[in-house]
Amino acid sequence: xxxxxxxxxxxxxxxxxxxxxxxxxxxxxxxxxxxxxxxxxxxxxxxxxxxxxxxxxxxxxxxxxxxxxxxxxxxxxxxxxxxxxxxxxxxxxxxxxxxxxxxxxxxxxxxxxxxxxxxxxxxxxxxxxxxxxxxxxxxxxxxxxxxxxxxxxxxxxxxxxxxxxxxxxxxxxxxxxxxxxxxxxxxxxxxxxxxxxx
Length: 198
Known about the structure:
Blueprint: E1 17-21, E2 29-33, H1 34-51, H2 55-81, H3 89-105, E3 110-112, E4 120-125, H4 148-159, E5 162-170, E6 179-188
Antiparallel strand pairs: 1-2, 3-4, 4-6, 5-6
């Protein structure tokens, strides 16, 4: 029997729980305390900062790790959310903000700053649970601490045939009032079927 997630609260002082995918033959889920997840992520970023010489290399590694997570996470998301194919980028934005972020991080970012062509928007995170308990040291001023999220979004969307550019443009860790992730639709990825198959 799968555990049921308690109602999530935006109060960072309360115990929150998230469902995280657990790789097993039965594809069961495990429940993880949000503080444990936040601290574990912090330990990962700290280790990457020790392993790599500069923040740009750490940022690339976080994006790469996130991409690999997103490529696998999309299957869990589609199975659990019962979301069908999105018809346009606006619908995709709604699914990301209102379902995916809520499901995996317990937050619902707002969608703003649409481009006139409808191919670019911002996700505004009033509260980023990954940065609870975090302060960036002065010698890591160019570190994009939550860059894993950009990779996750890029990897997951690529698996549903959407090439996107995802980047942080504002970050509360760097003194901004909110955290802003900018997403831009690049192109629809066509399936490469062998000749003669449709």
